[in-house]
Amino acid sequence: MVARMIDGKAMSAALEQTLEHAVANLVKAYDVAPCLYVVLVGEDPASQVYVRNKTRRTLAVGMRSIEIKLPATISQSALEDQVKALSRDPDVDGILVQLPLPAGLNSDAVIACIDPAKDVDGLTEVSAGRLLLGRPGLRPCTPTGCVILAKHSLGDLSGSHVVVIGRSILVGKPAGLLFLAQDCTVTLAHSRTKNLADVCKSADILVPAVGCPEMVKASWIKPGATVIDVGINKVADPRKGQGAARLVGDVAYEEALEVAGAITPVPGGVGPMTIACLLHNTVLAACARRGWANPDLTAAKWPT
Ligand code: NAD
After folding, report:
1. With 0-12 CB in 10 A as exposed, 13-18 as middle and 19+ as buried, what is 178?
2. Which residues face 188 on adjacent strands?
3. What is the Cα–Cα distance from 40 to 192, expressed in whole angstroms?
4. CATH number at 33-118
5. What percent of the chain has pLDDT over 70?
6. For the residues 179-206, what does the mean pLDDT come to?
7. Whether the model pTM is above 0.90
8. How far is CA 106 from the centre of its chain?
9. Where is the Tetrahydrofolate dehydrogenase/cyclohydrolase NAD(P)-binding domain (predicted)?
10. Separation of alpha carbons 84 and 78, rounded Å
11. What is the dihedral angle through the alpha carbons of 155, 156, 161, 166, rounded to the nearest 10 degrees?
12. Residue 303, preceding peptide bond in cis (omega within 30° of 0)
């Protein structure tokens, strides 16, 4: 058996096309486009690439996107003041602080300055509490993308056993809660989990979110399982020359293809969906805050 590839690029393109249409209707109705502010502190090259991508795709669906670039030497209080000002500004719909922040800056304290109504990354205590309580709110983008990809692959997820590897605040924990909200039976595995391979092998849906290149082997995967690989790892690629690198996930993709029923590639799987979900959250935040009717996204033409 060769696993079906779950195409995150095509899925995110479908969601973004629907969002583009929805944004055009909002602009027609209310004469203003939702506006995302991205705060980038320091010169980290990976963060610069992520922010550029987010900005480009926000603009592509017709929203406004503004980057605020701040020096790595900024003080904690000056950064917090900047984020508080965005929280107060009525023209700002979404605030994203690109993480990680440079050493010496306290990201928890900065995130606490984001108005939960504009928390498009779903990282504030209010957003986390709403997720835990099952109340409406803005959900973290990467785990939301994982659920969309799994649902597209399997349909109803109810009763499926989901094993998430990783318990971070950004991915693992919210992924567990979001799959629970789909009536899945959820296991959160992590660095102290015993017999990890056996735990993984019991999963109908396996969601590795560790940051360890190709740690999940084919022998860890139940035949026919759906694998949603969150990990993004840069590894040396000597075939492309000295110093060259390529991206791999947490799953040994080639061998996993022989066992899984469906699997996301890296790159081109969860990554593009994360940005599409960020754009979706920005539209949702704008509608909720400005009292606009929520656009209907059920019309998304998902790839077959
Ligand atoms: P993190 O370092 O905060 O958390 C990693 C988790 O993995 C921890 O909870 C830890 O318990 C667990 N872990 C570590 N070693 C383990 C081991 N040997 N066995 C089992 N569990 C182990 O990382 P994160 O922010 O949650 O990100 C995880 C991965 O997902 C990274 O590769 C990151 O780049 C990637 N990521 C991808 C996207 C995307 O859009 N695709 C978004 C966010 C993060």
Report:
1. buried
2. 164
3. 34
4. 3.40.50.10860
5. 100
6. 98
7. yes
8. 22
9. 140-288
10. 10
11. 70
12. no
Contact partners, residue 57, CB within 8 Å, separation at least 6: 16, 275, 276, 279
The CB of 172 under 6 Å from ligand 1? The reply is: yes
211 C-beta closer than 6 A to ligand 1? yes
**Which residues is 130 bridged to in the sheet?**
none
C-alpha 142/C-alpha 208 separation (Å) is 12
Residue 91 is given by DSSP the state T
Domain 33-118 and domain 141-271, same fold? Reply is yes
- Please list, in sequence order, all residues whose beta carbon lies within 8 angstroms of the beta carbon of residue 108, skipping any fewer than 6 positions away: none
Yes or no: say if 69 and 37 are a contact pair by the CB < 8 Å rule: no
Structure tokens at 146: 């994982």
229-288 per-position pLDDT tens digit: 999 999 999 999 989 999 999 999 999 999 999 999 999 999 999 999 999 999 999 999
Nearest residue (CA) to ligand 1, atom 34: 232
**pLDDT at 294 (0 to 100):** 85
* Res. 304 pLDDT band, cuts 50 70 90: confident
Residue 300 has pLDDT above 80, yes or no: no
The label of the residue with tokens 């990890």 reads 196
Rounded distance, CA 297 to CA 70, Å? 35
CATH H-level superfamily of 141-271: NAD(P)-binding Rossmann-like Domain (3.40.50.720)
Q: What is the residue extent of each domain of the chain?
A: 33-118, 141-271
Q: Which residue, 128, 70, 61, 117, is CA-closest to 94?
A: 117
Which tokens go with 166?
Answer: 């990783």
Q: Is 158 known to sit in a ligand binding site?
A: no
- Cβ of 182 below 6 Å from ligand 1: no
